[in-house]
TrEMBL record:
Gene encoding the protein: Cni-lgc-49
Gene Ontology molecular functions: extracellular ligand-gated monoatomic ion channel activity; transmembrane signaling receptor activity
Keyword Secreted belongs to the record: no
The protein's name in its UniProt record: Neurotransmitter-gated ion-channel ligand-binding domain-containing protein
Signal peptide range in chain numbering: 1-25
Source species: Caenorhabditis nigoni
Top-level taxon in the UniProt lineage: Eukaryota
């Protein structure tokens, strides 16, 4: 009897426990989640949160069975897309292939009202989801239209960050490696300033559908995350602009970013200019070796010329074959001319020395050489072949002073030629230096002014 009386109460307790369990299960199912296995466990201390909707559930609720179509433009009046670039690194600028390479973060932000989830009581305000979800969302399909190469980094997984705000704003961030064109003009090389540019636009949608804009809230829509220093260039300016470009299918919003680089010419100074200075100085030693040391002087001159040609070739090897004259070409060619002229001077001195010696042997009366009129016909014919008597020339050209001067030059002794060269060559070289550096430095300043750069940055 006792047993039979006890049974209903036991059953009652059991059913209450079962019911309680059932309610708990129902609450768990309602929140679409196994609470204990979630990465953000809901504690008993915050019962209000237990009712909230979790991230995957929100995604499912937004995208499954709601008629969300990734091919439909979110707003019929056009979607404004805010773009911002963060330049992480510029890895190279290549003169030969005329391009540059960099790693950047591309940020895009647009409002997709269909993704609004404020009303779903989200557990987290901002949803950050993986790139797989991005494939199911509408995107502006933007790309670099002038890049030679562009790729989203995908090691160890695709470097895409996607965040959805409760009000439906989508923020996408890609880490991209992009190689873009530069229009290198090497006229001022190595004092040059170069420009490279990239154009970012929506590939599919014209500006009626997608309005691309540099992020208006940000003071610098294209910013660098840390200072960029390449081995031989320095980034001195970034200029973002927006252009409406006409295409056969309508007007497109193009976002242009221009990067201005200044060459760091110290390397070229050390590798090209300094050695040429030394080579030229060495070629002047020849003037002080005297007229007797012909073999030594020839060796100096020829070695200097060879050294110069070798240096020139070395520098040219890393530059494209352009059909205009670069600053370094002018430098190298004029330096070579200086060495060539010192060899020419050597030839004249050598010739005159040999003549003098020959004349001493052939014409024992030295006076006769100095005075042509007095020299009897047939004597010292060798000289006469090259030196016409003054009267005859003057008669032919009406006594132009020039020839008198030339005559005087020709009558200079080899020692005098050496002495004059030892002053004339350095003086001419100094003048050339002043003209060269001031001309090219001014050109550089002009170019900087044309690019609206701050001069103090140069
Ligand atoms: C929920 O978590 C418990 C324990 O953490 C586990 O035993 C159970 O299988 C999980 N349920 C689901 C549906 O994942
Ligand atoms: C949980 O949500 C339901 C409906 O969505 C609501 O009726 C209930 O009051 C909520 N519970 C709490 C604790 O907020
Ligand atoms: C939602 O849709 C995706 C693909 O469209 C599917 O893989 C997924 O299982 C769906 N989820 C639910 C809860 O229906
Ligand atoms: C969500 O994003 C906004 C804007 O970026 C930020 O101010 C806010 O703190 C974020 N909220 C959470 C919970 O992360
Ligand atoms: C949506 O929310 C984000 C982050 O809180 C905010 O920056 C943005 O202005 C909001 N957009 C609209 C249209 O309210």
């Amino acid at each position: 009897m006792r047993k039979s009386r006890n049974t209903p109460s036991r059953f009652f307790i059991l059913s209450i426990i079962l019911l309680f369990q059932f309610i708990r299960c129902a609450v768990i199912i309602d929140s679409d989640y196994n609470v204990s296995s979630d990465d953000d466990p809901v504690t008993e201390a915050s019962p209000r949160k237990r009712n909230c909707t979790r991230q995957p559930a929100i995604i499912d609720k937004l995208l499954n069975g709601t008629g969300y179509n990734k091919f439909r433009i979110p707003n019929d009046d056009g979607v404004p897309v805010q773009v911002e670039f963060w330049v992480q690194a510029i890895t190279s600028i290549n003169e030969i292939t005329n391009d540059f390479e960099m790693d950047i973060y591309i940020n895009e932000m647009w409002l997709d009202p269909a993704l609004k989830f404020e009303h779903l009581n989200p557990c987290k305000q901002n949803l950050s989801v993986s790139h797989q979800v991005l494939e199911r969302l509408w995107t502006p399909n933007s790309c670099f239209i002038n890049s030679k190469f562009a790729e989203i980094h995908d090691s160890p997984f695709k470097n895409v960050f996607l965040m959805i705000y409760p009000n439906g704003t989508v923020w996408v961030n890609y880490r991209v490696n992009v190689k873009g064109p530069c229009d290198l003009s090497l006229e001022l090389f190595p004092l040059d300033i170069q420009e490279c540019h990239l154009i970012y636009e929506s590939f599919n949608y014209n500006n009626q559908e997608v309005r691309m804009r540099w992020n208006e809230k940000s003071p610098e829509p294209v910013s660098v995350t840390n200072k960029i220093r390449l081995p031989d260039f320095e980034l001195i300016k970034i200029e973002p602009t927006r252009v409406s470009a006409p295409y056969p299918a309508g007007m497109w919003d193009e976002l242009h970013v221009k990067l201005v680089f200044e060459r760091r010419y110290i390397w070229y100074f050390m590798q090209a200019y300094l050695p040429t200075y030394l080579t030229i100085f060495i070629s002047w030693i020849s003037f002080s070796l005297g007229t007797k040391a012909m073999p030594a002087r020839t060796m100096l001159g020829v070695n200097a010329l060879l050294a110069m040609i070798f240096q020139f070739g070395n520098i040219m090897r890393n530059l494209p074959r352009v059909s205009y004259v670069k600053a370094i070409d002018v430098w190298m060619l004029v330096s070579m001319t200086f060495i060539f002229l010192s060899l020419l001077e050597l030839a004249i001195v050598g010739y005159k020395t040999k003549n003098e010696e020959g004349a001493k042997k052939k014409c024992p009366h030295k006076k006769l050489i100095d005075n042509f009129e007095a020299s009897p016909a047939g004597l010292c014919r060798y000289e006469k072949r090259f030196m016409l008597p003054v009267e005859r020339r003057s008669a032919r050209w009406g006594g132009i002073m020039r020839f008198q001067i030339l005559q005087d030059f020709w009558n200079w002794s080899p020692e005098k030629i050496d002495r004059v060269s030892a002053i004339l060559f350095p003086a001419c070289f100094a003048i050339f230096n002043i003209v060269y550096w001031s001309y090219y430095y001014n050109k550089k300043l002009e170019k900087a002014a044309a690019m609206k750069l701050n001069e103090d940055r140069l």
